[in-house]
Amino acid sequence: MRDYEKEIMEAQSLKDLLFGLVNNARLSGKFFSEKCILKIFDLCNAYWMHNGDSKKPHAKLTSGKCSNGFFNCLEVLKYQQLSDFLAQQLALLIRERIGNTKVDWVIGSPMAGITFAHDVARALGATKSFFTEKDPNRSKKMLWNRVVIYEKETVLQIEELITTAQTLNNVQETIIEGNPYPVNFLPFIGVLVHRPAKLPISEYGDRKVIAVVEKEVWATEPEDCPLCREGSILYRPKQNWEKLTGKQ
Questions:
Q1: What pLDDT digit, counting tens, does each position of 67-124 carry?
Q2: Rounded average pLDDT over 41-60
Q3: CA 10, 16, 17 angle in degrees (round to 5)?
Q4: What is the CATH number of domain 4-245?
Q5: CB 47 within 8 A of CB 70
């Protein structure tokens, strides 16, 4: 029997993953370790963590803050084979927690969460999949006005990335406000990458986190950054990936 986890860990390029390996791994129906999932992110140039050595550079985020880590889920989920595989991994974890509980709706947030939620819905056997929309007239607000969730239907919220509770709470509040009937959210949130500043965080409000990957990733102003104080150089990840990661 093929050891797909070993093959993924030994893969040298993204091409190795996409040439049937990840699809066959998904079809095996097995759960893969976090280390294996991070290998996939690494091959997509979508994951980096600082190793604590002040001689190594660290990340400057779009906000201007410093960080000890970086995830770019879009760079992974744009590949359909990888999105299907990772959706299945999350679905396996969810089913482990909820058993045969019926899932009527799987709902994601814009933008990467839209397609990922759809793939998770298919992996779970959910009846419907949809998403909240960005409100063009109100910054950081969302809309729910195109479809209706009926009473007694169950809703599972899916995110591709959670840093804080802001987006996931915004999604829930938007659906509750915009839907004409009471909404029955399952007491779980499924997420591909859970990367709060401090772990463990097992729940947000009354909903428990089910995550494929969990890492502590902090972000702070440069004047408060311990790596800056020690002389570590700052790089914007997307523009300076080779310098930040040391990859050639």
A1: 999 999 999 999 999 999 999 999 999 999 999 999 999 999 998 889 999 999 999 9
A2: 95
A3: 90
A4: 3.40.50.2020
A5: yes
CA distances for 137 relative to 110, 133, 141, 171, 177, angstroms: 16, 12, 8, 17, 17
- Phi/psi for 180 (5° steps) reads -75, -15
* 242 Cβ neighbours under 8 A, 6+ residues apart: 248
For 61, other C-beta atoms within 10 Å of its C-beta total 13
What tokens were used for 7?
């093959």
pTM: 0.94
